[in-house]
Amino acid sequence: MTTPAELALTCTDLTQPELAHLQRLLGSWSVLADLSFSDLLLAVPTTSIPGEEPELVVIGQIRPNNRPTLLEQDLVGQTVLRSGWALAAAALERGEVVRGAVHHPLIGESVPVENVPVRFGDSVIAVMVRVYSRAVATPISMYEKNYFDVFGRLLQMICAAEFPFPEEDVGTEETPRVGDGFVLVDADGRVEFASPNAINAFHRMGVYSTPEGHKLTELGIEASAVQWALAARHPVVEEVERRPDVIVLVQCIPLLENRVPTGAVILMRDVTDVRRLDRLLLSKDAAIREVHHRVKNNLQTISSLLSLQARRLDSADGKAALYEAERRVRSIAVVHEILSRDPGDQVPFGEIVGSLVRMAEDSVVSTRPVEFSVEGDVGEVTADVATPLAVALAEILQNAVEHAFDRPASGAGPSASSTPSPGHVRLTLSNGRKGISATVRDDGRGLDPAFDIERTTSLGLSIVRDLVVSQLGGSITMGAAEGGGTLVEIRLPPDAH
Question: Which CATH topology does 178-270 take?
Fold first, then answer.
């Protein structure tokens, strides 16, 4: 779906500051749709082409939460001739609100429209088209009268380039809407009107007296948001915790006239249940972190026991087997160590790779020094992929350390007095549309020409093959590298991560 920014960049001559102003309007105009019980469209003049009739392009559309929509079709991205939207074109040209009616093809009759020029600085850069039913044209209840009154004041602010507010943050899913609770206060912060839902929010906060005519502080409610919004002439959002078990999100929008605050709109939403769930999630995250931390500690304990047992053995084969098991356990512990810091479905595999390389560096025992390098990254992967992949890479790196450089490559044997040239092991990682790729290349003595990983008797390589093929559903190849040495390639399908 094309975004408003993309439409504006490709179809209009808007500057970046002008586009930012319209994006702020799109991020905050839900309050306008709800206050006016109307569908709203935002139309912008397209780039003029010599010899062609000027057009408008719709870059935004919103429907009210408290009335059925009159515009079931999504009009964003559509272009229309200015002559077809004569009222909108007149609002753009004259810089004033133009009211009238247009024929609605689905209803079969004309519907009222209000075309509001959107001003930025000294220029009119767009027109906001309000489409509404004749049934709401005349307010009949007190809350409708207050809604329309505030809507009219906000329209004047749009025409005067005072709304949306400069640097206003775009609303989130939690931002209160008019239907959640609406309170109108005057320039001194005294309540002039409170909607039924706002009264319910007051009751939840333990306030049962009539709010009209009183300041929030007189009702025993924290009013710093209102005071700051009126003083700074800028919207303020804060959470009010009236009792330990009641949390209300408050958004205060100042109403200005010639830059002077004449009152404010307070939108209130009870977020007690949402915050309770947030706290439960935090507790769950803490519990998951603790579980991974304990698993890591247990694995480290097992690793230490295996290492201790290996040192007490006289058999070289027994020692080697225990040290290999201890290394594999440490590889798994690395994954749980990272999960204990940041629990979640995804694991930053780059952190794991760093630990695996350090483990391989610490285990170098050959007469030749070995240098490791890492290129690329696979990003974040699931824990189900991270653990077997970490064990597989640790095994391959260790295999290179133990076997690739245990004697000098043919034709390159150093004399007893010279320093052996270092061996190199390069790990290359990538993650793209074809899946994850991990390549380990060394410049050691290479493999036996008859080597076949499918028929290997090596326990370590058998473990790697089973992890990659059976558990991760990938493939592994192991053969001679171009220019000498060994090349191991692991490829995992896209759905593996």
Answer: Beta-Lactamase (3.30.450)
Does the predicted model carry a pTM greater than 0.90? Answer: no
Task: Check if the beta carbon of residue 492 is closer than 8 Å to that of residue 389.
Answer: yes
Segment 213-261, tens digit of pLDDT? 999 889 888 888 899 999 999 999 888 876 667 888 889 999 999 999 9
- b/e sequence 131-144, b meaning 16+ C-beta within 10 Å: bbbeebeeeeeebe
Residue closest to 343 by CA, chosen among 263, 273, 405, 289: 289
Q: How confident is the model at residue 415 (pLDDT cuts 50, 70, 90)?
A: very low
Domain boundaries in the chain?
A: 4-137+146-159, 178-270, 273-344, 346-409+422-497
Q: Are the folds of 4-137+146-159 and 178-270 the same?
A: yes
Closest CA relative to residue 439, chosen from 409, 405, 479 = 479
Q: Report percent pLDDT > 70 for the chain.
A: 86
| Nearest C-alpha neighbor of 376 from the set 453, 429, 304 | 429
Q: Which CATH class is domain 346-409+422-497?
A: alpha beta
